[in-house]
């Protein structure tokens, strides 16, 4: 119990410090950061253009950014309510939840992780390394003519 309280306090301190680096114009539209049961600070959103801009700006302060979208020819559609499961190197679930918009940010400690998500009939598992640089993973599902669906994962 004490460890969880300490983890939450540390995550809250980190949230305040990172919020100080985000310009006030973005903070007005930024959804609140949350802390998972395992003490992982995360933020998810981007449903409106102003909120999407705020989350994209906040992404610079988080070591992991996930983006979820569907592409149908030249049209792009943001995907919401995607399940996200993040496991550490030992396979222990460090985060399990759902997105509340096309963007998901997490403050993970340095290490090697596996991110899994699902949309429609497609499930993806992608290895991610958190180190000195940010990790950005785009989960993009591409529709082909006549509603065939191809899915891709790209690292950025």
Produce the secondary structure layout.
Blueprint: H1 2-20, H2 24-27, E1 34-35, E2 41-45, H3 49-58, E3 64-72, E4 75-78, E5 83-87, E6 93-98, E7 103-107, E8 111-119, E9 122-130, E10 135-143, E11 149-155
Parallel strand pairs: 3-10
Antiparallel strand pairs: 1-2, 2-7, 3-4, 3-7, 5-6, 5-8, 8-9, 10-11
Gist?
The chain has 156 residues and is of the alpha+beta class.
Which properties best describe this structure?
about 160 residues, alpha+beta, Immunoglobulin-like, 4-stranded antiparallel β-sheet, about 20% helix, disordered N terminus
* Percent helix range: 10-25%
- What separation lies between the terminal Cα atoms? 37 Å
Number of helices: 3
**CATH superfamily, please?**
Immunoglobulins
Output the CATH topology: Immunoglobulin-like
Shape assignment: globular
The structure class reads alpha+beta
Q: What's the story with the biggest beta sheet?
A: 7 strands, mixed
Report strand %: 35-45%
Supply the CATH class. Mainly Beta
Radius of gyration: 16 Å
From N to C, what is the helix and strand string? HHEEHEEEEEEEEE
Number of domains: 1
The mean pLDDT is: 81
Count all strands and give the number.
Answer: 11
CATH architecture: Sandwich
Runs with pLDDT <50, length 5+?
Answer: 1-20
